[in-house]
Amino acid sequence: MKKVKKSDINKLKDYFWEIPMSFREDMKVPARVLAVKSLLDDIIEDRSLNQLVNVATLPGIQKASLVMPDVHEGYGFPIGGVAATRYPDGVISPGGIGYDINCGVRLLTSILKIDDVRDKIEELSKEMYAQIPSGMGKGGDIILTEEQMNQVLTKGAEWAIDNGYGIQEDLAYIENKGRLIEADPSMVSEMAKKRGTDQLGTIGSGNHFVEVDYVDEIYNEDIAKAYGLEKGQLVVLIHTGSRGLGHQVATDNIRVMMNAMAKYDIKLKDRELACVPFNSKEGQNYFKAMCAAANYAWCNREVISWEVRKAWKTIFGESGGHLKLLYDIAHNIAKIETYNINGKEQKVIVHRKGATRAFGPGFEALPEAYRQVGQPVIIPGSMGTCSYVLAGTEKSKDITFGSCCHGAGRRLSRTAAKKQVNAPVLKETLKEQGIYVEAGSFKGIAEEAPIAYKDVNLVVETVHASSVAQKVAKLKPVAVIKG
To answer: Would 52 be classed as within a structural domain?
Structure first.
């Protein structure tokens, strides 16, 4: 299979590139890249653009296969990938959602200012680390019975609230109010349920974290005001997903689909793109299981918020006020959405893998306070740099199926990062910069070092310049809790 070279890529705009269908005879649509030129030079080094071309061959794919500026290679689909397939007979592919189903982010806002409490940040970081279980396979204090597990998979974040691990007002500020109604717990294997039995309220390992930030810059005063953000304000960023349960759902269904593709006469260049028609039995079974795993992830982030709020109160008492949920959004998920394609309104199955929904003003499902300004888009950077809050735009629907980047995007593998980074030195360096890191191992710190990631500023500038989303605020970290 020939590798994509620079000469194969056509420039559409300063921030938009295309690999035409003529590149490979099995492509059904072009493959498009959202990136400024300097990022494109990095992207071409790994397999992500070849994976993007492979995605362009999927049965029923519409318009184009797409990647965001934080793209890097993944399983099947590149991470940062977006693809919409025809509803209901186009395919659904677990590789287009990822192993960590509904990995996503949420942002909590406070009434405190960094300048007033800087001397308590280290103490807060240690208390949060004590309250929030983290690390590979690490379980928490909630042990679910079989009946409780089925309720979590059905009700999502509502289960946490009903059982005293969350607050009712949060639901309005969670994508889909923290619940996909198509979920069917019976489609989730016993092994997947077993893996999730004790993992509610835990962040896991890898790039997952809980981070205390402050608002460093405001770019759009009106939108920031609607979101409740102001300069100097302390906020808490949470990034995790469905843990072992979601991973097992993906594993189970990839195996099923690999065996079922021949039945539907589906032939692919890369078996990691294993897929079946959405309206097939296997497709529906996976979609219902995926929705259940997504509900588990929303419940997980709600429970983690409860743990964060406990730690916050322990350190700041009543003077710390209430941590309010700004928004919670998924970036590994498939959704049924409607777009104008070739002049016709059409339902599609939008796969977002390491990509965030970025809908603009007027989107009915948004909380009333945000409806006039657009959906919050939360973009984590790395633990030593910065993160961003953006607002979705109406243009995103035309350019990227209403999608945006989801983070900075890796530029070094975990193995390469470990070879290059002295973790104890990095931890001390970050502390000197006023960033306190609590982690279960130095290995985890090395793998997630700032040099392992692309420049989040360039990634965000790309989506801002393309009008896919607009910058609202920049966040700077002061405490990071990792597995």
So the answer is: yes
Q: By residue range, what is the domain housing residue 156? A: 6-411+453-482
Q: Using DSSP, state whether 229 is helix, strand or coil.
A: coil
Residue written as token pair 């910058």: 471
Question: Looking at the domain assignment, is residue 437 inside a domain?
Answer: no
Strands 91-92 and 79-86: unpaired
Residue 312 belongs to a domain with what CATH number?
3.90.1860.10
What's the CA gap between 190 and 171, in Å, rounded? 28
- Cα–Cα distance measured from residue 451 to residue 188, given in angstroms and rounded to the nearest whole number: 38
Quick one: which of 3, 28, 306, 298 has its CA closest to 156? 298
Cα distance between residue 201 and residue 242, in whole Å = 10
Residue 351's beta-bridge partner residues?
A: 83, 334
39 in a domain, yes or no?
Answer: yes
Number of structural domains found in the chain: 1
Q: What is the pLDDT of residues 339-352, one digit of tens each?
A: 999 899 999 999 99
**How is residue 406 written in tokens?**
């989801």
**What token pair was written down for 427?**
């931890």
CA distances, 124 to each of 64, 186, 320, 366 (Å) = 46, 41, 12, 32
For tokens 């990509």, the residue is: 355
Q: Decide: 230 and 221 in contact? Cβ < 8 Å.
A: no
Q: Which amino acid is at 458?
A: L
CB atoms within 10 A of CB 461: 16
Residue with tokens 């070092």: 449
- Is residue 287 in a domain? yes
Contacts of 27 (CB under 8 A, 6+ apart): 21, 53, 56, 57
Phi-psi group of 125: left, alpha or beta (phi > 0 → left; psi -120 to 50 → alpha; rest → beta): alpha
Active site residues: 406
pTM here? 0.97
pLDDT of 221-255, one tens digit each?
999 999 999 999 999 999 999 999 999 999 999 99
Q: Which residues are within 8 A (CB) of 164 and not within 5 positions of it... i.e. 6 or more apart?
A: none
Would the CA dihedral through 241, 243, 247, 250 be positive or negative? negative
